[in-house]
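USER: I would love a firmer grasp of how sequence relates to backbone shape in proteins. This is the protein in question:
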Amino acid sequence: MSSEASKQNRLTILLPAGRLPLPVMAKAYELAQRYGLEVYLSTLQNLRLMGLDEEQLAQARAELAPFGVDFKGPGKFPTPRVCIGRRDCSAGVQEPEELSRRLMDYFQERGPFKPKIKIAISGCPFCCSGVKTTDIGIMGTKKGFDIYAGGKGGPNPVVGRRIARGADAEQVIETVETLLAYHDRKTEKKQRMARLLNETDFPFPEV
């Protein structure tokens, strides 16, 4: 096997709320220089090191672990994609980073979760994080959070169904928990939420 064929691995570093700590950025840069890797910032706000062989993959994990980073892997709660939020955007009316942190803290020790579910949170109705085209979308409004289910992108995009208006953080967590449990119960391996919206037992009506 050629050296090019063997360098097919990628290491995805999860970045909650899209925030990249400077020490992690410096270590990723060092690793990319050392091994001649590509660095990719994904649409899910994660950082990928591309083109590692097996030995380099293990070494990169070991060197990044002391920085407290988490890596993409099967069964993990989907890290929400968020906009920049009220602190740094004049249009913001809610703080998506704080809600993202609360969701991740709540679901961290739960699961495993099935793949193909994505979560997005926006701080205002402009929905810069793609709330309405995500499996579970949480949109900030002046009255709280509106929640959407079943959105998706791709060649046949679907706008999610609004299932809650003006929810507070606790109601958001309860709704996400119900949706994830329903998806798990109705899905053998992986499936987008959009395929479940018309099931007779879908737990939420459109509002």
Summary: The first helix runs from residue 3 to 6.
